[in-house]
Structure formats: structure tokens, C-alpha cells
Amino acid sequence: MSDAIAVAITGASGAAYALRLVEQLLAAGREVQLMLSQAGQVVVNMETDLRLPSDTAGQQQALVSHFGCAPERLRVFGRQQWLAPVASGTNPPAAMVVCPCTTGTLASIANGICDDLIDRAADVALKERRPLILVLRETPYSAIHLRNMLRLTEAGTTILPANPGFYFRPQTVQELVDFVVARVLDHLGVPHELTARWGEDR
Fold first, then answer.
1. pLDDT per residue as tens digits for the range 62-82
2. Whose CA, among 41, 70, 142, 187, lies 20 to 30 Å from 29?
3. How confident is the model at residue 196 (pLDDT cuts 50, 70, 90)?
4. Other Cβ atoms closer than 10 A to 129
5. How far does Cα 88 stand from its chain's mean position?
């Protein structure tokens, strides 16, 4: 089985979560298969100092340079790149994370709509019984959002809203980001030292 982790960045606010997650996965020696929605690319450019072009090849080059990794460890796939490994159950990644996840993407996945590679990759993760984690970044939730979350939870998805804790008295925004990313990494079974665990001293 592939040890790759698929990461999808959609148009919800919270690009810092996605970039930190990719950074940590690469640091842990995992291959990252990355997909960006059009809105996700826009949000990365709005919320961070990273400037991603609209074309897939340019995104690949910019992200490999940003993370300082080998190109084969971070592969960027286009929204209609149907020959990508993530599009088929014959070569699925070990797990998939949508971070951040819009409620529109939530709805598409919950209803089996596979209009682009992100939706199809999530559909593959579900049907192949691979971990699927959705890092929702929306508030408040409507009844429609909640029904979609319940439907996906019943199908085996982990709904992990970007809700940082404050009991460890964070002093920086980065600490809040790390709290959420640490929870994602825990559910992926990827070791990290981002935050202290409950009952541990740091």
C-alpha cells in the first residue's frame, strides 16, 4: 500500500493549516499528493506570503521551492487530471485530508458528486475504506451542513473542524495552527512534536 497522503486545499479560510500540514508530512518522510481548488489557490495567495500561479506545473515548482523538498515527494495534480493516482481505487493513497474544507466540498463528497479530482479522490478514499479527514472551517453550521457531516461520519469520515484549544495558553497564532495540525497528524498516525499532550509537561 502507498504511504502517500493526499491533501486537498479548498477555498475556506485557513491556508496556514494546510501549509503547516504539508510541511509536517514531508518532514515525517511521507509523500504528499496535493490538489488545490481554484478558490484554494486564491485563498493561499490572500492569506500567506506564498504566491501560487494558476497552472499546475507552476504550483508544483513554487511549492517544491517553498518546502525545500525533492519534487517526487510533493506531487501537485490539477483539478481535471483524471490520470492521477488518487483518481483510482487501484492506486489510492494511504489517507486523504481536505484542509481547509469548504462546506461546498463537504456537500459534494457527501453526495458522491465527482466533478473534479478533489471530489473523486475523496470518493475513492471512502470506497476503498482509507482514512478521510475533513478539516472544516466554517461557522455557524446550517442544518444542511450538519446533515452532510452526519452522512459522512456514518460512512467513516473523520470530521475535524479547525477548532484550536486554549488550555495550553497559546501565545502566538502559530501555536493555534499547530494545535489543529497536530490533531490531524494524530488521526493519520504520523508522529510529531508540535504540541504537548494532555498531562505532559513541555
1. 999 999 999 999 999 999 999
2. 41
3. confident
4. 10
5. 19
Q: Which cell numbers in the block locate residue 121?
A: 479522490
Specify whether the CB–CB gap between 98 and 8 falls below 8 A: yes
Percent of the chain residues topping a pLDDT of 90: 94
Q: Which CATH number describes the domain made up of 5-188? A: 3.40.50.1950
Over residues 3-30, the pLDDT tens digits come to: 999 999 999 999 999 999 999 999 999 9
Where is 75: in which H helix or E strand? strand 74-77
User: Per-domain residue ranges for the chain?
Assistant: 5-188
Cell 499528493 -> residue? 33
Minimal CA–CA distance to 93: which of 47, 30, 144, 38?
30
Q: Is the dihedral of CA 36, 126, 148, 22 positive or negative?
A: negative
**The three grid cell numbers given for residue 133, joined into one nine-digit string:** 479527514
46-66 as b/e, with b when 16 or more CB fall inside 10 Å? eeeeeebeeebeebbebbbeb
